[in-house]
Amino acid sequence: MTTTTSGLTAVRAGVLDYTAAWDEQRRLHDAVVSGESGDTVLLLEHPSVYTAGKRTEPWDRPMDGTPVVDVDRGGKITWHGPGQLVGYPILRLPDPIDVVAYVRRVEQMLIDVCAEFGLTAGRVEGRSGVWVPEDDRGPARKVAAIGIRVAQGVTLHGFSINCDCDLTHFDKIVPCGIRDAGVTSLSAELNRPIPVTDVLPVVETHLPTITP
After folding, report:
1. Distances (CA, A) of 60 to 2, 46, 68, 84, 170
2. 145 marked ligand binding residue
3. What is the greatest pairwise CA distance in the chain?
4. Which residues are catalytic?
5. pLDDT digits (tens, 9 = 90+) for 115-145
6. pLDDT tens, residue by residue, 161-195
7. Distance CA 208, CA 18 (A)
8. pLDDT for 55-70, tens place per residue?
9. Residue 117 in marked binding region
């Protein structure tokens, strides 16, 4: 299913292997760079996979031999898999390129999506992504992650938001290289099932806010 709002096309790609999604990102990136395609966001789920950004340290990785896909985005290691909605915006950024401003727009979009479900989330100074603040349930917990790359003025990679995924997958790694904080999901925080199918249309509604 494909929808276009405010010049931004959202493509529901279903469940897609990570390498297949990476190939499709690069194809779309070439098309946006050349002007053959407009701004596009892939929305999908991956089969279970660990991906490591350029800043991943050896001690962040699984110690049990679990395979890891090394990628050219920023950030460190993370997990993708069932119950997590992943978005890959392939967007042309205006000159002068302001990557930080783009990341902040993506963060705000995800904060707004969380608010739609009744979850108050926000930013943590010095850390990317979207966080549930420290409370009586524990320290600050990341509910959505961001890792991007910009090449030839067009974005790659993107964001993930934990809907109703199995959070034990994060136990094998130091997620995003952060040892003193947890990972959570919309379902875990709100004590009710919130599947990807519920979150997907809400994200689509808010996607236009990530464009400049």
Report:
1. 37, 21, 11, 21, 11
2. yes
3. 51
4. 176
5. 999 999 999 888 889 999 988 888 889 999 9
6. 999 999 998 887 765 545 556 899 999 999 999 99
7. 25
8. 888 888 887 777 888 9
9. no
DSSP bridge pairs for 70 = 52
The tokens for 179 are 């040892």
- Say what the pTM is: 0.93
- Reduced to 3 states (helix: H, G, I; strand: E, B; else coil), residue 117 is coil
- When the pLDDT of each residue in the chain is averaged and rounded to a whole number, the result is 91
- Residue 73 known to bind ligand: yes
List phi, psi (to 5°) of 131: -130, 145
CA 50/CA 201 separation, integer angstroms: 26
Instruction: Using the CB atoms, write b or e for 157-179: b if 16+ within 10 Å.
Output: bbbbbbbbbebebbebbbbbbbe
Whole-number pLDDT of residue 160? 97
What whole-number distance in Å separates Cα of residue 54 and Cα of residue 203? 27
